[in-house]
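note to self: dont lose this again. the chain is below, predicted strucutre after it. 266 aa total, dont forget to put it in the shared folder this time
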Amino acid sequence: MPNTLSIVEDPQPDDGNNEYLYQQFTLKGISLDIRAMADDERFTLDKMMERDCNIPISQCTFTVYKNAMPFCWDLNGEGVAFRASTRASTGQFTIWVPEGGHEVYIDHLRRLALSKAFAREFNALIADPKYWFDFSPTTLFESESLDITSSEHSWSFLEPAVSSNGSAKYGHSYTDVNSGIVDGPTSLAAEAFTHFTFERSKGRFMVSNLVADVENYLNLKSSTIHTLDNERLGSLDSNKHERGFESFFSSHHCNNVQQCLAEHET
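---
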């Protein structure tokens, strides 16, 4: 499909700089099939944990408005990013170009799918909604379509933008960077969730290092998954496998959210 390009005014230009214009593109990409994850028994958490081919990924077409100039932001300290919006949503988005090749990008989607599936089961076991959370959707598309790539970066991600107040990272007690809310609901839920994913997967997976928008702690932006199988999500540098499990449990202490989980299971 040819990409259609036009320049339109940024509805909220930064400092009146005329470089902040949006470029409009119609793109094809791939994303998680959220409906299949929710309704199709072929894509349950158990089956997704069995093998990668059970993680539903579908094609999509969408219109995106990209800022002409990149800005200095990246959730994981890698790559380049652009502000963006879409025709289908009034929210703000970010286009970011990660390091790595095609397998890395697909593993990013697989990681998101597993994280969302674990979160769905976790939420179902917790009665109090203040401990519930979900992971933001991400779409993967070819960067060449937007003229923002080099030979090393052929794909890009589109995902909801982090607010101007930034993000907070949760994993376990010594990695929580937001010291003022260490005992808050999100911190407690995040630590309980990480332990839950390890127990639920019978020691095969662990979702940790959760990154949330400061203005919306229930909407997580990113995570790390450590896997027992060295081949699963093996292209992701953040996957430390058994060393990741050991790192978490070296400082982990069960909290009241986990006690609620234990009571439910018994």
